[in-house]
Amino acid sequence: MLKYLKKYWLFCVLAPLFMVCEVAMDLLQPDLMARIVDEGVLRSDFALIVHVGVRMILCVFAGGAFGVTCGVFANIAAQGFGNDLRKDLFGRIMSLSFEQTDRFTTGSLITRLSNDVTQVQNMVGLAIRGLVRNGVMFVGGVFMLWRQSPRFALVAACGMPFILLLIVFFLRKASPLFRIVQEKLDGVNHVMQEDVAGARVVKAYVKEDYELDRFDRANDALCRENLRVQTLLAFLGPCMNIIMNLCVVAVILVGGITVKNEGGQTPGSIMAAITYLTQILGGIGFLANIFQTFTRAKASADRINEVTHSDPSVTDGADTQRESARGTVEFRDVSFAYPGTTQNILEHIDLTVRQGETLAIIGATGSGKSTLIDLIPRFYDASSGEVLVDGRNVRDYPLRDLREKISVVMQRTELYSRSIEENIRWGAADADPAQIKSAAQTAQADDFICETQYGYYTPVTESGHSLSGGQKQRISVARAILKPHEILIFDDATSALDLRTEASLYEALRKQDPDSTKIIIAQRIASVRNADRIVVLDGGRIAACGTHDALMAQSEIYRAIFFSQQKEGGAA
Ligand SMILES: Nc1ncnc2c1ncn2[C@@H]1O[C@H](COP(=O)(O)OP(=O)(O)O)[C@@H](O)[C@H]1O
Ligand SMILES: [Mg+2]
After folding, report:
1. Which domains does the chain have, with CATH numbers?
2. d(Cα 190, Cα 515) in Å, to the nearest integer?
3. Is the CB of residue 338 below 6 angstroms from any atom belonging to ligand 1?
4. For the chain, is the Cβ count within 10 Å smaller at the N or the C terminus?
5. Which ligand sits closest to the CA of 372?
6. Beta strands 392-393 and 406-409, pairing class
7. CB 550: neighbour CB atoms within 10 A?
8. From the CA of 366, how far away is ligand 1's center (Å)?
9. Is residue 370 within 6 Å of ligand 1 at its C-beta?
């Protein structure tokens, strides 16, 4: 991840330099204090006390100024780092295939994008300031201690290994726990994301208590894990304090024994030594803190890398040549099982759709209709067999080229919280108002749009809650029609429309857009009986294929579906 810091190298260099200056000021203090005690107080030299005192105050101010500058620079670097990392990660998440998004889960991706990035970003800020500060404090402190007396340095040297051992011990214990904490956070975000997005369903089913319970469980699990790590780390500070205080006692003992001897330690130098020792060991304590943040950030960095290093499983094909045919789709002996499962959802599909043809797909829910059309824009890749668009295997296309040929209205309509006009224009940024209106007219959406308060500029609330199901579907259809395409795919895109509006829509589509190939998944035979061909899908296999009349004559399943819908229609 260091590459994200490159851009901010100047700040990464300047911040530690200012920090070194601040630490130097801190390190001067005990020495000056020793002089005040030994030369000023003990000899009652008031002028010297004032003189050195003023220098001490100046040092404090200078140190403060250096500290602030360092803090500002370190923050610029850390925030910039976090910003760039988040941007890259978001881009990568956008390029993941459906399968990978399913595998990571939305909740976890959100945690990685928000909390995990923040952890790493905090680490960077702390490292730039803290590592240098405490490193310099440590080396400088030992040096100054040595200058007071080598004996004191020896005492510090005896205490040090114990402290290092403590740090290593605790961090090794804590590091796997931090990963668990982040996973529990995934859990909380998962429930949160589902319930906030699905708040309406929760209310409709009066499931608030149930969902609260589910949230509590996830939240408590997070709390428990956090407590476990924090309890463990709570021991670290006091343990280090004990060692530190033992060292201080040792300094007083060593110094006190020699204080009366000729050439022994002066009271001022003992005081200074104690301060240096506190600074050194405090510095180590702070380093422990940094290493703790580091351990935590390491867990987060690993999780971020998992995403940034997972190459999109659906990638561009290398072949950029133009194809001669336009708008044909062919399935050659295609079978498909969802990644990570063994059950084939599609089996041995052979199907050719000609340019300009309208092909309908009918079948029970779960028969694999949506799965079949997902293979055309490569939302998933066929497990075996080939899918060809315009005579070329879809895997050979650059993804962008392939998807630019295809307009899909998905089964679950997704609208954005923008105006109706922007929603329709989404797939064709440079469309003019007349084109937008014409697409809406074809989709039978123009009438109701014009009746809304601000017409085309009426805002759509989040995920389209302000619109009825049929209105959302028609806006989605208009969006798909407007986007330049050779192949138009409707996945149950008109199921919420009444039969008359639906019939007008298909009639308008035939007139306005005669050239593109249309693949239409429908529940009701009445919706698609005029299609050029109808495919009946049953348990992932093509059970029958032909015109309405031919299927009525030949296909048992088709007739069964037809008559059951006739009965429903008659009853209604
Ligand atoms: N992302 C997925 N992962 C695993 N199984 C899935 C996934 N999506 C759909 N399925 C399964 O594939 C089968 C066919 O689903 P689908 O193609 O959506 O049916 P249809 O559109 O005909 O109702 C279903 O049994 C469903 O459980
Ligand atoms: Mg479906």
Report:
1. 2-308 (1.20.1560.10), 329-571 (3.40.50.300)
2. 44
3. yes
4. C
5. 1
6. unpaired
7. 14
8. 6
9. yes
